Amino acid sequence: MVVKVYGPAYASPKRVIVCLIEKQIEFETVPVDLVKGENKNPEYLKLQPFGSLPVIQDGDFTLYESRAIIRYYAEKYKSQGTTDLLGRTVEERGLVEQWLEVEAHNFHPPIYQMTTQILFFAKRGLPADENLIKESEEKLGKVLDVYEERLSKSKYLAGDFFSLADLSHLPFTQYLVGPMEKEYMIRDRKHVSAWWDDISNRLSWKKVLELY
Ligand SMILES: N[C@@H](CCC(=O)N[C@@H](CS)C(=O)NCC(=O)O)C(=O)O
């Protein structure tokens, strides 16, 4: 059964797609255009009642929330493709979960604000809130300082192995270093910079960027 992923052009669906590639799971994509409001169509809302991307359909099974989806596939196909994305021991699993939570609750809110203000408002010709951008950049900087300290002690966030916690950072950090033109936030931090070079050069991520 080929997994269907809705909304491949956006960042959160890319979190799922990069995981499917790491796990060597076959998938196809269904475009959903947020600008046209296709995420609010009744047919889409039947799959994802909050109207957010992504959602996946795997046979009769439907699942939304990108981080729930990546956990699901990492667990379901533990020994296929890249293994140990959730760690090998319960302690490693705990650390992967800890850093996945940090990504979702500390890293994501400020970077999402910046993405919305800098990329999407500007794209629609709407004025950006410069104070909010500045405030979010400061918050994100403080989060990255914590990452710098952590990554001075281990190669990846959860330890010396690549995990879902690292993978989960790929799509929005790509916006930061690319179209948002704020690469200095990564490059000014030696260990964060080396970590970014490592994870963003994975074949799976290069494939995502090539495809979408
Ligand atoms: N917590 C959700 C959030 C997903 C999310 O923010 N998706 C964005 C695209 S990257 C979106 O669909 N925005 C439009 C909306 O939520 O109405 C997840 O991780 O799946």
Task: Provide the descriptors you would attach to this structure in a database record.
Glutaredoxin, 10 helices, alpha+beta, binds glutathione, Glutathione S-transferase Yfyf (Class Pi), Chain A, domain 2, 57% helix, 2 domains, globular
Oligomer: single chain
Approximate strand percentage? 5-15%
Helicity level: 55-70%
Structural class: alpha+beta
- Computed CA radius of gyration, to the nearest angstrom: 17 Å
Which ions and ligands are bound to the chains?
Answer: glutathione
Q: How many DSSP helices?
A: 10
Q: What's the CATH first level of the largest domain?
A: Mainly Alpha
What kind of sheet is the major sheet? Answer: 4 strands, mixed
| Count of discrete domains | 2
Predict the CATH topology of the largest domain.
Glutathione S-transferase Yfyf (Class Pi), Chain A, domain 2
Succession of helices and strands? EHEHEEHHHHHHHH
CATH architecture of the largest domain: Up-down Bundle
Give, in spatial order, the strands making up the sheet with the most strands. 2-1-3-4
The best one-word shape is globular
